[in-house]
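Protein Entry — a single chain follows
Next Lines — sequence and tokenised fold
***
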Amino acid sequence: MNSSEFVFSNHAIESLRAIIEDLQQVSLLSAEKVRSRIMHKLHLIQHQPMQSSKKVEAGMDRHIRVAAVLNYKIFYMVEDTRISVLEILLDKEVKNA
């Protein structure tokens, strides 16, 4: 699956931007660490989309999956020739634990 196209929805881009901007208000170093960890996880998803994630929904030619990194969840769709990052959200259950 290494030759798959890897794309971000506009919503995922805005979510990642908002996460980093919120963290920068507290600590630039923390924001950079979180950004780095999320980007690393996205790189792993790009090359091995079915590992270290859970299936949310499956259809004939696509699978919606979720992967966790720190206190965040990355939702993405795996199709035959494309991986689409749909959303990046704060996992409120982890934050409150």
User: Anything to note?
Assistant: The two ends are 36 Å apart (CA to CA).
